[in-house]
Amino acid sequence: MADRILVAYATRYGSTAEVAEAIGDELRKAGVAVDVQPVNEVQDLSPYRAAIIGSPIYVGKWLPEPQVFIERHQQHLRTIPIAYFAVGLTAADGGPEILKKAEASMDQVRMLVTPVDIGIFPGRLESGRLSLTDRTIIKLIRAKTGDFRDWEAVRAWAQAVYSKIAPL
Question: How far is it, in rounded angstroms, from Cα 35 to Cα 28?
Fold first, then answer.
């Protein structure tokens, strides 16, 4: 019987990977066996009784990799509890309209497999680590740089999700 939880993610510059690791650490504190992996490295879902899948938000959407992962494993994912999380700078502003747009970044994957919960977290932006294209976009939209991640909120969400995916 599957007895592990998968935390799978896509990331461009590492911020979402670090959020995924924090979620995995919190689940481990609850006594659960957890694997935290990039979605591109996950081949077999049979060892998992639940999955948490995350992506950064770029231009209002998830990266393609987690969506392709969910499409490819849709049949299995529909048989286990799953949750989604998104990491994006717009979430740092936190207003209801902003959070609604951040939630909309998950619309396509939510149509594929309905999650038991979703989490939306502010991200980190360090312009020195960005590609030339991304630096140009950041300048044009005048995005603020810095680390806006709220680790307490990430841990609290992981605890809340655990209660929804824990065995009965």
Answer: 10
